[in-house]
Amino acid sequence: MSVYENVEIAALQGGPADLPQYEGKAVLIVNVASKCGLTPQYAALEQLHAAYAGRGFSVLGVPCNQFMGQEPGSAEEIAEFCSATYGVTFPMTEKVEVNGEGRHPLYERLVTTADAEGHDGDIRWNFEKFVLSPKGEVVARFSPQVVPDAPEVVAAIEANLPK
């Protein structure tokens, strides 16, 4: 079953994010934050998005403020920071909770997949990554410390680009 099925989430700057538009694409979903030590990963995320967008790939950033309040801004402030600081062009959703009782339904589905070390369940920190197949299935999970352009992330993306 596709993680997008019957899940609604708003875009960062209003309106629905229209998750079904990602059916048929490889997607890297990442919970992001603007005031985190890992925030420079935005640069590599944007590079991946630019490099593979023409081949049926998208990064989808999901702002979250659950980790030491490292994403405190409004939607407008987040968008401005990402654009001005890292030149982000990939789509972003509204700010959501990725853990706990208020966990967004998208993350309810994502966190059932384990990473290479066997970790499943709760998101550990900002910039945890999930690679989705064109069918909307989670095919890989990477810890926050694994950089977006790490060979294993790139290999998972390339293996799932639409044929």
Describe the structure.
- Belongs to the glutathione peroxidase family.
- InterPro entries: Glutathione_peroxidase, GPX_AS, Thioredoxin-like_sf.
- The chain has 163 residues and is α+β, with helices and mostly antiparallel strands.
- It has one domain (19-160): Glutaredoxin (3-Layer(aba) Sandwich), CATH 3.40.30.10.
- 25% of the residues lie in helices and 14% in strands.
- The chain contains 4 helices and 4 strands, in the order βαβααββα.
- The chain has a 4-stranded mixed β-sheet with strand order 2-1-3-4, with helices on one face.
- Helix 1 (41-52) links the parallel strand 1 and strand 2.
- The model has no long low-confidence stretch (mean pLDDT 96).
The named CATH superfamily: Glutaredoxin
Name the helix and strand elements from N-terminus to C-terminus, one letter apiece: EHEHHEEH
CATH topology: Glutaredoxin
Largest sheet: 4 strands, mixed
Q: Over all CA atoms, what is the radius of gyration? A: 14 Å
Q: Helix fraction?
A: 10-25%
Mean pLDDT: 96
Class per helix and strand makeup: alpha+beta
Please give the alpha-carbon distance between the first and last residues. 20 Å
What strand line-up does the widest sheet have? 2-1-3-4
Q: How many structurally independent domains? A: 1
Beta-strand segment tally = 4
Percent in strands: 5-15%
Query: Uncertain runs with pLDDT below 50, 5 residues or more?
Result: none
Which architecture would the CATH scheme give at its second level? 3-Layer(aba) Sandwich
CATH class: Alpha Beta
